[in-house]
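hiii, so i know i said id send this last week but things got crazy w the move. better late than never?? heres the sequnce for the chain we talked about at the cafe, plus the structure i predicted for it. fair warning i was half asleep when i ran it
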Amino acid sequence: MRWTNYLIVFLFFVFTSTATGFAQETEALGWPRMFESGGNKVVVHQPQLDEWDKYELIRGKAAVAVTLKGDEKEYYGVLDLETTTETDFDSRTVLFKDFRITDVYFPTIEEKLADKCGKAVRKLLPKDKTLIVALDRVIAGLEKTKKEAKGVPMGGDLSNAPEGKAPSFLVAAMKDPYSGNLDRIQIVKGWLDAKGKTHEKVYDVVWSDNRKPGKDGKLPLVGNTVDVENATWTNTIGAPELITVWTDPDFDSKQSAFYYSRVIEIPTPRWTAYDAKRFNIKMDKEVPMSTQERAYTSPIWYTP
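okay and structure toks below
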């Protein structure tokens, strides 16, 4: 999890036409940026500046989501990027040119699919454009990046949120190879208000089967394939893996809070169904025969 960084939006994929001289940037585009061609879609999230080597080479990284032609699923990965710079200290401007993708990786998917996603990224993202940015803006962005937390894993602690920012969480899960597909991933948030009262809220952050929340904001049930009589189920619903980036829409930097994720499987036979099958007995109607297994992460703690 990390704080969303807005200072580096000018460094990558904000372009003007190829320039023969220095000129101030004319627009600042928002993030994420989307590129589409041939049925493939690439969404690039806000880049993070890592270093500026001798005022000549800038390196950074950005989260990327890829949707391939004929496949509605988004695959998340990370880009490593670099760009050559020319600095004019008299006019205090920096020319960015020769944007290069040095690496792109998708750690949660199998190799062949990751290779397809990587090729789509390299093909769709522009490389031969230039951008002019004020030197002071670049330096400020670099210094700000160095001061801010890069992120913490589950079980970690955050404090002193930068003004106007909310925490973003990268959450991913893969199914147990011997169990059911995944229904959804939730993030559970707890917080302490000014009166010392505790609160808790559950957010559905990513789910399977292209379901859409209803007018009440609730997500429809995933379904149930459990065959109680034979104590079996099928993985024709749900998804083998889920991944997303979620930003707290209700964040208050003055409130202490914690966050943890909860991964929920599709319904599978409960132990009562297995016993009924094994011992050839009939359970009472009120006995539940299916269940949705779940897993939890350790929390991330925020302190003002």
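btw The two ends are 16 Å apart (CA to CA). thought thatd interest u
miss u guys!!
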